[in-house]
């Protein structure tokens, strides 16, 4: 089954001000970079989703420092970058076409924010017929809300998603050695 690694919205805005730091971001970034290494070794295409806000005052507005993909990601020029303007990485983007052209059958998800862009994209992928998707445990995150803290949000969404919209897999499912080889 041909796979693609989809990394959603890991952008500088989450690292410029301590008020916007994602929960457990250091560990999540480490895990995402391990996934990127695994994907390169396994010849799995990597797609970076980049939120692009139409409000020029927003941190995620095109060209703003916060809009850039996080500098600490192990991104290479050959990796696909798809800009989106809503929470859904499929909505009015080239993602569906790209996946079809690459004959991708299974999506592996990581990124932010758990309850917004990641949730919307995961559910839409399922609705589009991608029924064998995976989410990597410890490779997605969010911020505290006024109702729940980030850990509660993550736990809640994982309980809703698992074995419905995705199968949640530990990083060790992909990474069996220090070299990042499956």
TrEMBL record:
Superkingdom to which the source organism belongs: Bacteria
Molecular functions per Gene Ontology: hydrolase activity
CDD domains according to UniProt: nicotinamidase_related
Keyword check for Protease: no
Domain Isochorismatase-like, residue spans: 4-141
Keywords linked to the UniProt accession: Hydrolase
Record's keyword annotation contains Hydrolase: yes
Gene3D superfamilies the UniProt entry points to: Isochorismatase-like
InterPro entries (UniProt xref): Isochorismatase-like_dom (IPR000868), Isochorismatase-like_hydrls (IPR050272), Isochorismatase-like_sf (IPR036380)
Family the entry assigns: Belongs to the isochorismatase family.
Name of the featured protein: Cysteine hydrolase
Originating organism: Lysinibacillus xylanilyticus
Taxonomic lineage of the native organism: Bacteria, Bacillati, Bacillota, Bacilli, Bacillales
